[in-house]
Amino acid sequence: MIIEALIGVTFLAALVVMLAPDEYAGKLAFALSLLPVAGSLWMWAGFDAGGNALMAGSIAYQTQLDWLTVAGYDLQWFVGVDGISLPLVVLSTVLSSLAIVSAWTPIDTRQSQFYGLMLFMEANLLGVFTALDFFLWFVFWEAVLVPMYFLIGVWGGPRRKYAAIKFFVYTNIASLVMFIGFMALVFNLPVSSFGLPEITQALQAGKLSGFVGLDPATLKLAAFTAMFAGFAVKVPIVPFHTWLPDAHVEAPTPVSVMLAGVLLKMGTYALLRFNFTMLPDVATRPLVATVIAAVAVVSVIYGAMLALAQQDLKRIVAYSSVSSMGYVILGLIAYTGLGIGGATFQMVAHGLISGLMFMAVGVIYNVTHTRMVGDMSGMADRMPVTVGILVAGAFGYMGLPLMAGFAAEYFIFQGAFASTVIPSAPLFTAASMFGIVIVAGYLLFAMQRTLFGEFSLETDYEVRRAHFHDVAPLAVLLLCTIALGVAPNIFFEMITDAIEPVVAVVGGGA
Amino acid sequence: MEPALLQADQLPTWTALAPVLALAVTGLLLLVIDSIDPNDTRPTLLAGVGTVGALAALGLAGWFLSAGTGQPSTNGAITLYGDALIVDGMTLFFQALFASVTALVVVASYDYLRGRAYQAEFYALMLFAATGMALMAAANSLAVAFVALELASLPSYALVAFLKRDTGSVEAGLKYFLIGALSSAVFAFGISLVYAATGSLLLPDVYEALAGDLTGLTGVAGVGILMVAGGFAFKTASVPFHFWAPEAYEGAPAPVSGFLSSASKAAGFAVAFRVFVTGFPLEAGVDWVLLFQVLAVVTMTLGNFAAATQEEVKRMLAYSSIGHAGYALIGLAAFTGAAGGDVLGASMAHLLVYGFMNTGAFLFVALAEHWGVGRTFDDYAGLASKAPVASVAMSVFMFSLAGLPPFGGFFSKYFLFMGAVDAGFWWLAAVGAVNSALSLFYYSRVVKALWLDDAVSEFELGSTPTALYAAVVFAALATVLLLPGFGPVIETAQSAAAAIVP
């Protein structure tokens, strides 16, 4: 019942905040958002699942109720968590609370609507990560789009309408493609419900039948392609990434934090759950694996190169997300314990670090009103704490040991190197490692120009230190990043436990 | 026919028509009130009586549905007056739909009509139109179908032209009437041809005659069926008899547009479903499924593309309602005989959800007209900052019409497309899905205008019309609640549909 309570309380909080007066909305939203944080931590404390939820593992906090029946298929309210979803649930609640605090300074119009939508989005995100029935999952998945559309479109920058529509149309068409691909699978399986575990197990038992002249293998390939394309937009993977920089640059800081920190993970989470868990035999075909690995490496390198070419701090961070998500894809296709485990760990690590970076850039923007690298220098002089945390976060991004990013990327490289699924895996791995060099290049370059040296910024007001409530979420995120870097097993153990069955299916090894 | 008693409550059979009677009596009562007090000084009384009548019809239909009247769980369908009328699950389902829409529209009209003359006539006409629709759902004979269709249509012509000092309204009424008269003629001629070929007007007899040996009259029957389909195309605003719809919906008072595009369209489908499924056997050499496949594809595509190019919200909604007629036609287009109940039921459920979301959208337009906001997308800019609650409701309608998951419209469309896939017509579902995805473009334009765009000019909204607001909010609530509560709706619809498949 705890999952229902978690989602229900968050929905209720959204409603309450929506109706609250603007002056108190921010504080109230933060206070209420602590409830889901406490709930998710409590779930973590009592977590007792083992194995993968989709592959006959034991599911924690499971509820399964019939909702309705469509032409012989049961739709259910079916929720629960395993070692893959729990870390993402915790990430969602924590990051939402911090993002709400970071909105106190920049959001100065229609606050109650803003915070209400943030909480509404959080509730749906929790649904995405806990739903184990396809329909239920899809309802939450699509419902996330609606608040995001408004958050970008109403409170965004000058080109916010274009960015909001682009985001909405891109991801919605992608969802449709994915939906059709998945339906094509379900219709040809002898299953009685849309429960993801049942579908996964039927698929792996080879019960798929052909469809309008396609034999099962071709149908699987077609469905895999449709689903991959659909999720690739969400992740995003080059060449489906063009909505991301627009959305990020126009979105207000707290919304960017949620977008990079949690929404992108919806895509990688779904890839892991659907494509890589349900259809491992397609993913491990040499051609498919090569294409995916190549796309991953291109995302890593091309994303980093794009970041290198930017002048806008937020664009830099946005493009570097494309690069980081490339690592996740590489880890997933490696099909080794460390590869998939590292990819899942990277989802959490990148959620924390990119959230930190976006927030720090936002704090600087709040006082400078510019994000252009060329417009400022020596910010360390005026905002020592913020800049200190930003630098620490940037090093985390580059993969400094004892930070979460290092652990994640190390696992991924190690796992990808040993992969038996990707042909000539060491080559791909080595190529992707160059991404790190480029990341270090653009981050160091941008920091050197903006943060250090003599202070200069053309303003007609005194540049002051940031508020305590602006810096505090940064510090919390930094602490989490370090904690995960020092002791990755906080999450990595349960992740490994949950992904082991996935790896075992293809015999990918540790 | 043995007069079957109602199992659940042991009432005489004629009471199965209670929902129709409730609507008819309310209409008459309104005329009586008007003749006693002809000056329309009591709009509250008039609207109140109309609402109570519509709600009573809804309550009766709902009660009968749950009690099992006319359904397989009791004695099966109840036929009356020499089999000319039939009351079964489908009849009651559609009657509940018409009554809900009528109630919403009557409530909304209370504010919309404030200060106008001839209010009693307005409400009376609306209830008579609703009576005709309720009768259409109960028609078991082609003659009754024709008469009921006219009973629903004639008041509608007057309602469209209700704003008689407004040239748009009058022009719309005239166009609607001319095309309506033409299609009635086509329909009547079709009926006479079917009668010539089969020798009967009662649907079960027609079915038997067509399924038997026609001795050279197949051609006559075929032309007759084609012309009957033309009559339904008019009532449901489907291609090729659709072009009255944008004019009529745009010119008519917005509550009337909502009434016509939801209830009247559904009534057309109610009678089309029954006539084609129970009257015209597929094996008789007339492949009407193919006809409806062509109509469905053309109607949904044309409606969607035309909607995408509109600059006025009301006109966009008019074209979108043509597109939705195309979706609902899938119920007949993917009909495969014995197993066709599922897709037919999905179509009925879609019409029910559509009844709420589309009526709600038109009522929002009525709200905008009440405030004197303009008609185009640009005129709606920034409305959300003045009227947040109504704007949330309108956003719900738009997203639901587009078929986004968190709302009722997602499930109803999904079941419809899935029914088509199940029946083997996956290409029909694919065309529907692509159209549905495209439709998001023009629906989201309204949401964008409401919430994202800044108001072009300062405007004051003035009064808050409570009744209109209540109707809009109620329709939005229903649209949202039809997502979790879709189970009973689809089950009722599919079992009702399965019961009529011969």
UniProtKB/TrEMBL annotation, chain A:
It is a multi-pass membrane protein. One of its GO terms (molecular function) is ubiquinone binding. Belongs to the complex I subunit 4 family. This is NADH dehydrogenase subunit M. The keyword Cell division does not apply. It comes from Halobaculum gomorrense. The keyword Endoplasmic reticulum does not apply. Keywords: Membrane, Transmembrane, Transmembrane helix.
From TrEMBL, chain B:
Residues 139-439 form the NADH:quinone oxidoreductase/Mrp antiporter transmembrane domain. It holds the Pfam family Proton_antipo_M. GO terms for cellular component: membrane. One of its GO terms (molecular function) is NADH dehydrogenase (ubiquinone) activity. InterPro entries: NADH-Q_OxRdtase_suN/2 (IPR010096), ND/Mrp_TM (IPR001750). It is found in: Membrane. Its main location: membrane. It is a multi-pass membrane protein. Keywords: Membrane, Transmembrane, Transmembrane helix. The keyword Zinc does not apply. GO terms for biological process: ATP synthesis coupled electron transport. The chain crosses the membrane at residues 12-33, 45-65, 85-110, 122-139, 145-164, 176-196, 216-234, 266-282, 288-309, 316-339, 351-368, 380-404, 424-443, 467-486. This is NADH dehydrogenase subunit N. It comes from Halobaculum gomorrense.
